[in-house]
UniProtKB/TrEMBL annotation:
InterPro entries: Surf1/Shy1, Surf1/Surf4. It is found in: Cell membrane; Membrane. Keywords: Cell membrane, Membrane, Transmembrane, Transmembrane helix. It is a multi-pass membrane protein. Belongs to the SURF1 family. It comes from Pseudosulfitobacter koreensis. This is SURF1-like protein. Its main location: membrane. The keyword Metal-binding does not apply. The keyword Cell membrane applies.
């Protein structure tokens, strides 16, 4: 009897821990969904003029509209798109009508179309979102400057190369008729939200734990057959 009570105690204790972890992940899911909803609302808000001094925290994802002309210079950042394949983000300097120089992430160009990218002439209006991408880590290769291929958006380094403010405007739409470069707007797709899968995993483990406990407890209640006297 003591062994059975011990198994029941272990089973209930383990199940309680696993269920509490699942509940915690459900709570995290609600929290993350709220954050994503807030980010989505900020991204899709009405665009405003470029702030004089943009703040990386307060102005992240801020929708803006800028008008100016593209200057010489371009940077290609290696990326890939689902159902399209390899290509590049096209980063170029824009001189605004107010005389500021900012970086414009114009969007995606296929690998085979890179040679067709040209510098737009005349005044251009870009509507997009301010962004401070965090894509650099210890494993990011150095840019291949000979071939003008970068492997991540390194805002300070790119601003230095193209002689601009360290400020990114990721284009959502532009006044350019050129269809070679396809805008890649800021969205929440790159923000992980796996809490539902984690919750299901913990609840499933709790169910398995209870099932195993029941099996072992039932085995413990079975009486062993008596050995016949010889």
């Amino acid at each position: 009897m003591g062994r059975i009570l011990f198994l029941i105690g272990i089973g209930l204790g383990g199940a309680a821990i696993l269920i509490s972890l699942g509940v915690w992940q459900v709570q995290r899911l609600t929290w993350k969904q709220g954050i994503l909803a807030d980010i989505t609302a900020r991204i899709s808000a009405a665009p405003v003029a470029l702030p004089d001094e943009a703040d990386p925290v307060d102005d992240k994802y801020l929708p803006v509209t800028v008008t100016g002309t593209f200057d010489q210079g371009v940077i290609y950042v290696l990326v890939s798109q689902k159902q399209i394949g390899a290509g590049y983000r096209v980063i170029a300097p824009l001189v605004t009508d107010a005389g500021r120089r900012v970086l414009i992430d114009r969007g995606f160009v296929r690998d085979e179309d890179r040679g067709a990218v040209t510098q737009p002439d005349g005044s251009v209006t870009v509507t997009g979102n301010l962004h401070w991408p965090q894509e650099i880590d210890g494993f990011t290769p150095e840019p291949d400057l000979d071939r003008n291929i970068w492997f991540a958006r390194d805002l300070p380094a790119m601003a230095q190369v193209l002689n601009t403010e360290p400020l990114f405007v990721v284009a959502r739409e532009t006044s350019l008729p050129d269809a070679t470069v396809i805008p890649l707007p800021v969205d929440t797709d790159g923000i992980p939200n796996n809490h539902l899968q984690y919750a299901i995993t913990w609840f499933s483990l709790a169910l398995i734990w209870v099932g195993m406990t029941v099996v072992f407890a039932l085995r413990g209640t079975r009486r062993r057959p008596e050995r016949p006297d010889l």
